[in-house]
Amino acid sequence: QSVLTQPPSVSAAPGQKVTISCSGSSSNIGKSYVSWYQRLPGTAPKLLIYDNTRRPSGIPDRFSASKSGTSATLGITGLQTGDEADYYCGTWDFSLRAYVFGIGTEVTVL
Amino acid sequence: QVQLVQSGAEVKKPGASVKVSCKASGYTFTYTGYYLHWVRQAPGQGLEWLGWINPNSGDTNYAQNFQGRVTMTRDTSTTTAYMDIISLTSHDTAVYSCARGARDGNFDYWGQGTLVSVSS
After folding, report:
1. What pLDDT digit, counting tens, does each position of B31-72 carry?
2. CB distance B49–A99 less than 8 Å?
3. What's the longest Cα–Cα distance across chain A?
4. How far is B95 from chain A (nearest CA, A)?
5. A32–B106 C-beta distance less than 8 A
6. Cross-chain residue pair A35–B105, CB shorter than 8 Å
7. Among the listed residues B32, B37, B26, B115, the one whose alpha carbon sits nearest the alpha carbon of residue B79
8. Residue A89: closest C-alpha in chain B
9. For residues A90 and A33, what is the distance between their CA atoms, to the nearest angstrom?
10. Does the beta carbon of B104 lie under 8 angstroms from any beta carbon of chain A?
11. A47, A37 Cβ separation under 8 angstroms
12. Alpha-carbon distance B117 to B83, whole Å?
């Protein structure tokens, strides 16, 4: 099991919004930046969000994120079929001295 | 443009070792702010971080689970990073990816992944 907890799956209809939670602890999310990654089937992961809330160039503003205490949340608005993928949160864990990922959340567009 | 191109798929027997390469281009390989991390994903599992190498200094940091079994190196003349894993078991069957990032994460570019299959 992972030190970061994510729901296994979320789903919504096209155009709707989904949120994905990522719960950690004071040794990881509580003191480090959180990133979010999207992994489409058969492709390399893509950085969606870094430093808790920032989007790399080219990532649409339909993707947003926040962090509070030891938890973080990714939001996807205007859901599209192309958003069907696995989404991972990640951060540095100071106790483990390692980068840790959540187990991943599968997003399904109904 | 930044590219990380990895070596091809490998099939190994239990107890063997494997070396995966990751050729970087499109940026300054030895820039002090960029580290090369290695991440793997076993079938049906999530992402697992193995460690990083600082291409400038050669310093490494390995995840505790892999210490003693993983070695990361780099060749600055060919801008290539390498990851060696010894004593392979079936549990090491996974897609191994290199990723560029800061020391503590933010993996902005990824290699295409290398499938390592371990089977007798």
Report:
1. 989 999 999 999 988 899 999 999 999 999 999 999 999 999
2. yes
3. 40
4. 10
5. no
6. yes
7. B26
8. B47
9. 9
10. yes
11. yes
12. 15
- Distance, C-alpha A84 to centroid of its chain: 13
| % of chain A surpassing 70 pLDDT | 99
Q: Which of residues 6-45 of A touch B (CB under 8 A)?
A: 32-33, 35, 37, 39, 44-45
Cβ contact B106–A47 (<8 Å): yes
**What would the mean pLDDT of A24-44 be, rounded to a whole number?**
94
The DSSP secondary-structure symbol of A29 reads G
Q: Does A56 touch chain B (CB under 8 A)?
A: yes
Pick A99's closest partner by Cβ from B97, B105, B112: B105
Question: Which of the two residues, A41 and B88, has the higher pLDDT score?
Answer: B88
CA dist., res. A49 & res. B102, Å (int):
14
Cβ–Cβ gap B47/A46 under 8 Å: no
Tens digit of pLDDT for each residue in A54-66? 999 999 999 999 9
Measured distance CA(B21)–CA(A32) in Å, rounded: 30
The pLDDT value recorded for residue A1 is 65
Q: Between the CA of residue A42 and those of A55, A56, A98, B41, what are the distances in Å?
A: 23, 22, 26, 12
Percent of chain A with pLDDT over 90: 95
